[in-house]
Amino acid sequence: MEAAKELTYKQGVGVGVDALLKAANVARRSLYEHFGGKDGLITEVLRLSAAEDEAGYQEAMRAAGDDPRRRLLGVFDWLGEVIEEPEFRGCRYLAAELALADPDHPGHDVIRRYRERVHDLLERELRELDHPQPAHAADQLLLLVDGTLAVGAIRRDTHPAAGARQLAEQILGDPRPSTRRS
Amino acid sequence: MEAAKELTYKQGVGVGVDALLKAANVARRSLYEHFGGKDGLITEVLRLSAAEDEAGYQEAMRAAGDDPRRRLLGVFDWLGEVIEEPEFRGCRYLAAELALADPDHPGHDVIRRYRERVHDLLERELRELDHPQPAHAADQLLLLVDGTLAVGAIRRDTHPAAGARQLAEQILGDPRPSTRRS
DNA sequence: TGGTGAGTAGACCGAATGGTCTATCTACGA
DNA sequence: TCGTAGATAGACCATTCGGTCTACTCACCA
């Protein structure tokens, strides 16, 4: 049920309720009883996929081993794979943020909190690395992530994750911790 | 007339025709005679603002002087100002790209060409700098631009342009051309 | 003076929107 | 066996969507 809604939502936040219901094989009434309306559904979908994507970051780092440096760069390798997937249509959260005109929509809060969690995830690894400015560097990494997803959405042929990874390496500094440049 | 439409379009690509007409004080018929419909209007708005924004890049570089390095970094200083503007609501083209579900919409082509022109603008300066990989570096700079605009749209309080500028400096390499690191 | 082109105002259309409604079906527990 | 909770199907509602239409106004020019 949730899965079908997500699938439908990947076609954009502006789809019709009817299309959602048909795709999920769900009665109209059920939707309104469970989520209170379309906005509630959207919010819940965002919350759910935010949890999944956060787990994706964690899994990408876990798969990259124990070295924090490898773990952070592994995130960009993972992003590269995500972008290559044929279903990829850009960052869901950025699209929602731009499409949800109402600034009071609860979805905005969900997205904000999600980004903070990812930021903290990155910052933790940077502290592990003894990076001198972990918070600032996490900001920069997140900027690279956003840029990668944005470019990946517009130019499907190019491979932005590799370029972003190079820049991430520079943020992380010299591979040998004792001689970090900045 | 075009100005009023643009203003209204900053509220999203999904606004109603009626709202557009009212904001521009234009009769319904005029719109359909001039642009053939909503899609034509959107395309024309994209085309127009793409030209304006391209001029914005050029002006930002011109204002930064003659040194290609300064000119490229000036782009990020300019982006920082753009983001700070209270009307800023994210990159118009990214929003359109994500919102225009129909892949055959002529707006996609307008956006693609606009990005290519900006890319070429950046690449030209990189060649001026004797950068070893001007095309690749331009890709990376564009990624930083997209990331900056994306982060600026979501987190209004943070100031992503400064972090992006630092990364841009690394792309450009050592300030002294003869001793470039990579 | 009369005609023409371009604009405006706004009624109107079918389709689709988000949301509420009733009626029906079904599974489960007392 | 009956009652209830929760699901379904789908009619229905007002509103809005993008788009077409007619009727009218106004400036310009021969």
Question: Could you please describe the fold and organization of this structure?
Answer:
2 copies of one chain form a homodimer. Chain A is built from 9 helices and no strands. Chain A has helices spanning 2-9, 17-24, 28-35, 38-63, 68-84, 92-99, 106-128, 134-154, 160-172. In chain A, α4 (38-63) crosses α5 and α5 runs parallel beside α8 (134-154). Chain A is elongated. Chain A has a single domain, classed as Tetracycline Repressor, domain 2 (Orthogonal Bundle), CATH 1.10.357.10. At the A-B interface, α6, α7, α8 and α9 of A face α6, α7, α8 and α9 of B. The structure holds a DNA duplex (30 and 30 nucleotides).
Q: What does the main sheet of chain A amount to? A: none
Number of helices of chain A: 9
Task: Indicate the proportion of strand residues of chain A.
Answer: under 5%
Shape of chain A: elongated
Largest interface: A-B, 40 and 40 residues
Q: Under the CATH scheme, which class of chain A?
A: Mainly Alpha
What is the annotated CATH architecture of chain A?
Orthogonal Bundle
CATH topology assignment of chain A: Tetracycline Repressor, domain 2
Helical coverage of chain A, percent range: over 70%
Radius of gyration of chain A, in angstroms, nearest whole number: 18 Å
Mean pLDDT of chain A: 90
Structural class of chain A: mainly alpha
The tally of strands of chain A reads 0
Give the total of domains of chain A.
1
Structural key phrases:
homodimer, 182 residues, mainly alpha, Tetracycline Repressor, domain 2, 9 helices, 73% helix, DNA-binding
What is the structure about, briefly put?
Two copies of one chain form a homodimer. By secondary structure, chain A is an all-alpha fold.
